[in-house]
């Protein structure tokens, strides 16, 4: 007989303890081959002075067991507290967020009775790196970081997932028409990975996120697996959950190379905590995903089918209850009992769950490093003089370029305003002066430092620089609009 798998569980805050008790009772009744190690996370831990909501000891448990079933927690409002989810994602390198969205019509109302899509969202990068600066009185910035290994991991995971779970199509969503370098990398890597003969059976496509999000809202039944960057994924997964009507029933998985965390999509619902009315289905769905992930698909199927049958039998918690379709309004505990009573049964109308073993292989290839060459520098200035006339600034900056560089252009919010530019462009106090290497010159860091010295001496306030590089001769920076 297979050994039990030890997992870490946390009961969380609000309705967390009630829905976790219900879920664990169902897991035990279904004879899941699991041992549970409990940790405390969330509000009490935050209030005890741990700003991340988790203690060192609990981290030990997560690092040891590497599978985490987590109830929702209440994030205290106000300063100083860090998001526990972000901490865990980063600490365990959980690069992929997987959110299946299904409709359970007619038991859960929706305009789209046949939704069955999975949104796979990159989880660690993008604007969520949280690197933000205010650089001038008027201008702020957030850095969008997209790495090749990050793209590789998520695109491979999505294609592996689609293949292993018998899906037909993977749609990649980006804004590569505008962000040609960052989103462009994501699209390129997706297309490279999709060309692997391993995925020959799958239909793959790329769409721009705006039409993609509209499709999720208007034609969700046409989508199968969707893979996208962190921010877009955050948005489209909520749209998907809403149109399927089953946000309260949805679970999600955060998957890494050798660790994973499973939780309900909803929060700790403090308004109904302690009343035995919360629906445990979101956490139970997450637990089913966990069982498939750790190689217990037989138990996952048993639970999922019993749960589908419970829904069909009209045994509903208050959030799902509708006079016309429901038979009984059940509390959290009674709902868990109803699922347990149906273990071994299958749904009669909804599609029976059949998971089988899933072997997902996410290996990152080693890619040779490219030849990187410094070809220029963008110097950003905070400048608020002379009615912000670009010609005045241009005349001031041009002579500072020296022998190595030439001033190629000045732009304001990405739009070229000097030496040529569009009439009447509104200029903020944030200017980018692009210096590129003169013909035959080989710029170095020392020359950039000397250039900055001249800029400072001329009384100009430089606020940051971005070096311009080529990689194997290919331009590694975008052109200004109108450059
Ligand atoms: P919420 O999801 O907790 O609640 C929104 C509404 O849905 C409430 O009316 C609630 O009663 C209802 N609801 C939620 N889950 C339900 C369930 N299982 N059964 C029946 N009804 C349910 O969202 P919120 O009120 O915005 O957030 C409450 C707290 O949860 C906040 O502190 C928030 O930070 C936290 N939160 C935590 C997580 C997490 O731990 N992953 C996720 C989201 C929100």
Structure notes:
The protein is of the alpha/beta class. The chain has 13 helices and 20 strands. It folds into three domains: 1-95 and 245-352, 3-Layer(aba) Sandwich (Isopropylmalate Dehydrogenase); 116-243, Isopropylmalate Dehydrogenase (3-Layer(aba) Sandwich), CATH 3.40.718.10; 372-475, Alpha-Beta Plaits (2-Layer Sandwich), CATH 3.30.70. The protein has helices spanning 16-29, 43-47, 56-65, 84-91, 148-164, 182-194, 209-218, 230-244, 281-293, 297-312, 332-341, 390-397, 445-457; strands spanning 5-10, 34-39, 67-70, 96-102, 116-122, 132-134, 140-142, 169-174, 203-208, 225-228, 251-255, 260-264, 315-316, 328-329, 372-382, 405-412, 415-418, 430-437, 461-471, 474-475. A ten-stranded mixed sheet has the order 2-1-3-12-11-4-5-10-8-9, sandwiched between helices. A six-stranded antiparallel sheet has the order 17-16-18-15-19-20, sandwiched between helices. A hairpin with a 5-residue loop joins strand 6 (132-134) and strand 7 (140-142). Helix 1 packs parallel to helix 11 and helix 5 (148-164) packs parallel to helix 6 (182-194). It is elongated. The model has no long low-confidence stretch (mean pLDDT 94). Bound molecules: nicotinamide-adenine-dinucleotide. Nicotinamide-adenine-dinucleotide binds at residues 15, 19, 72-75, 85, 248, 263, 266-272, 278-279, 282, 319.
Named once each, the bound ligands are: nicotinamide-adenine-dinucleotide
Strand content: 15-25%
Q: How would a crystallographer describe the biggest sheet?
A: 10 strands, mixed
The CATH class of the largest domain is Alpha Beta
CATH architecture of the largest domain: 3-Layer(aba) Sandwich
CA-based gyration radius: 27 Å
Given the structure, what is the number of helices?
Answer: 13
Strand order of the largest sheet: 2-1-3-12-11-4-5-10-8-9
